[in-house]
From TrEMBL:
Residues 188-349 form the Glycosyl transferase family domain. Gene3D superfamilies: Glycogen Phosphorylase B. This is Glycosyl transferase. Residues 12-176 form the Glycosyltransferase subfamily 4-like N-terminal domain. GO terms for biological process: bacillithiol biosynthetic process. InterPro entries: Glyco_trans_1 (IPR001296), Glyco_trans_4-like_N (IPR028098), Thiol_BshA (IPR023881).
Amino acid sequence: MLKIGIACYPTVGGSGIIATELGKLLSERGHEIHFITSSIPFRLEKLHPKIYYHQVELSHYPVFQYPPYDLALISKMAEVIDREQLDILHVHYAIPHAICAILAREMAQNKVKIITTLHGTDITVLGIDQHFKKMITYAIEKSDVVTAVSRSLMEQTKQMLKIDRDIAVIHNFVNEKEYFPKTAPGLKRDFNIQPDEKILIHISNFRKVKRVQDIIYTFQKVKEQVKCKLLLVGDGPEYTSMVQLVHELELQEEVLFLGKQNNISDLLAISDLLLLLSEKESFGLVILEAMACKVPSIGTNVGGIPEVIAHGQTGYIVPAQDVEKAAEYAIQLLTDEKRWRTFSENAYLRAKKHFHSERIVNEYIEIYKNG
Ligand code: GMT
């Protein structure tokens, strides 16, 4: 049995989801898990006897202009490493978690192994920033093991940060108890969607890199030939301008903004096609969530997306910003029932074969023990 500390962003987001689900699955295998985060990770809804939560508390001492979160995290990490005698501290996202873990290891008495998992924007966005570049490189070099969620992210990290050391690729996974092909009777009707209307869905945090406008433009073309609706799920910086765009294009009857939602698998149960047309994407966890629910996807030819979608089998890959092509493929798939069924089945089988949680958790355990 290993004692494993996990640090991650606890709010909605792919890296937090992976960290939390990994902790849950490791605990089911008998390992003791210690989350070190600012609030309870949002997927840790139930009581788990072998999971402990250590809250990073902010100090509001009057001379601090801003409460120093990173320092509080370092001291909490060092405290938990020693008190709980951790074997492993697995941190998700380089800034600030990896760098904090390195400093906590220096402070602690107990010998602990630091595993850093890179998730994407910590490298592809922050890695470009000169302020952070040196710090991220340092954290990667000083970690005992570094993993990346796709081959593309591993290669990009090495190239951008000029790093020679090994970075293991461990793909993402989904919790199959939550994401599986299910029915959601009545849900389509609740959204006022006709039984014969197809549903396209996009789920993201509405950051610029997600290019939600391309989703809307693609939908505008698709709906000329297919009776359909678009569900936009999530919230973020681009939300307001996307609402505006939908109004300008007079699509407000057909595009439904659902905001942040917890029951993504229910929404996938009524969806026919997932769109993720990002300009940067290290993996695209929502594609895998869709696949596990038998929903085919169209994604862009960026980052790790082509490692997830098998072009022409589980969905299609299009060049970034090519809404014509995305619409053409969407129409092809949504108007050919036989092809859609094959893609839907293929998506499910691919998720099971390549990204099954059991396989991915084994890969992490192997790294904890022998990496
Ligand atoms: O996509 C985001 O903006 C959120 C971000 C995060 O850190 O939660 O997602 C990143 O990590 C996910 C889990 O590994 C990946 O599935 C996403 O592709 C990745 N996002 C980007 O690279 C933009």
